[in-house]
């Protein structure tokens, strides 16, 4: 497996993905800056097409695998945002897309996939069970399988959001990125550390899905077999080889956040900025209290990575 991608690969990906996505804004937050004693900038990937950063990776992948995707059809597993990424990219080119999802995924994500013309198969309780089933179908049916985490072609596309960060805030000090599989944080270290090794990159995981955090601390791949969190995009029960190899020596810190802290961050984002984020999309903001000492007086980019959230769930959470 190719374990690393280079900055030049991200520039190459940008020329492709910009044909089908938007360049999202980086917004300074005066209120959040005052609350946390840092200069807080929000990277609004919740405003992206499909309302998630993941679409950048899917568009780049399908563009590189187009002949095979058209011939065989493409299949992947996801809790939602990666699924929309592949479904959107496939729909652009008229390729068949099959998505395997665990049960209890947000209705808003299911509806979005149907709108994109994807075929949906529900299997298992957690992401890893759905992934294993997708791999089985791909082998049986001869379909093009996209590994949601260990597929190297996803990463340069995802990392284009961090090129935008550096262009919009060249003197950034800190970037905070949630970690589910790890493609977003991997993009942050490849782009930021190549520009300036002094830029700090902090990762955020959910307390109930902490395999990557444990792997990073123990310096070896760890699987807890557990993904108990409201943050679907962070609900991975194991760490994966590709992002682990990229991040293990380059990321500066990883912190864990509780579901309660995530809900508080969703509420705070609405109150201060009038913006809606899904739980995984608000995880970086949820980590600010724990990182407060490390970001004091720093120019800090907080990645708001997604905004796909059921209205009923949103209302129940913010009304607590």
What does this structure look like?
This protein is of the alpha/beta class. It folds into two domains: 7-52 and 156-318, Rossmann fold (3-Layer(aba) Sandwich), CATH 3.40.50.1100; 55-146, Rossmann fold (3-Layer(aba) Sandwich). 45% of the residues lie in helices and 15% in strands. The protein contains 16 helices and ten strands. The protein has helices spanning 7-17, 30-36, 55-64, 66-72, 81-93, 107-115, 127-141, 154-158, 160-168, 183-195, 211-218, 241-247, 259-273, 283-286, 292-295, 311-318; strands spanning 26-29, 39-44, 74-77, 97-101, 119-122, 144-146, 174-178, 200-206, 253-257, 299-304. The protein has a six-stranded mixed beta sheet, with helices on both faces. It is globular. The model has no long low-confidence stretch (mean pLDDT 96).
């Amino acid at each position: 497996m190719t374990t690393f991608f280079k900055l030049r690969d991200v520039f190459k990906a940008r020329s492709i993905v910009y044909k089908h996505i938007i360049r999202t804004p980086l917004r300074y937050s005066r209120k959040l800056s005052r609350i946390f004693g840092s200069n807080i900038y929000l990277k609004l990937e919740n405003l992206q097409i499909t309302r998630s950063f993941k679409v950048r990776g899917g568009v780049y992948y399908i563009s590189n695998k187009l002949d095979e995707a058209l011939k065989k059809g493409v299949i992947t597993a996801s809790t939602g945002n990666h699924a929309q990424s592949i479904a959107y990219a496939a729909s652009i080119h008229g390729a068949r897309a099959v998505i395997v999802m665990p049960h209890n995924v947000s209705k808003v994500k299911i509806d979005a996939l149907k709108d994109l013309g994807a075929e949906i198969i529900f299997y298992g309780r957690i992401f890893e069970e759905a992934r294993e089933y997708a791999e089985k179908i791909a082998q049986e049916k001869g379909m093009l399988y996209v590994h949601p985490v260990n597929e190297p072609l996803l990463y340069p596309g995802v990392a284009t959001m961090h090129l935008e960060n550096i262009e919009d805030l060249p003197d950034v000090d800190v970037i905070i990125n949630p970690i589910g599989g790890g493609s977003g944080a991997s993009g942050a270290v490849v782009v930021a550390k190549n520009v300036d090794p002094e830029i700090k990159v902090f990762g955020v995981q959910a307390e109930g899905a902490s395999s990557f955090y444990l792997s990073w601390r123990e310096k070896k791949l760890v699987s807890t077999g557990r993904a108990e969190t409201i943050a679907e995009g962070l609900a991975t029960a194991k760490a994966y080889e590709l992002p682990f190899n990229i991040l293990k020596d380059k990321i500066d810190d990883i912190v864990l956040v509780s579901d309660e802290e995530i809900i508080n961050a969703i509420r705070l984002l609405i109150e201060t900025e009038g913006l809606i984020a899904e739980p995984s999309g608000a995880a970086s903001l949820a980590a600010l209290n724990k990182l407060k000492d490390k970001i004091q007086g720093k120019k800090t980019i907080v990645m708001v990575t997604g905004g796909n959230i059921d209205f009923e769930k949103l209302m129940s959470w913010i009304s607590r």
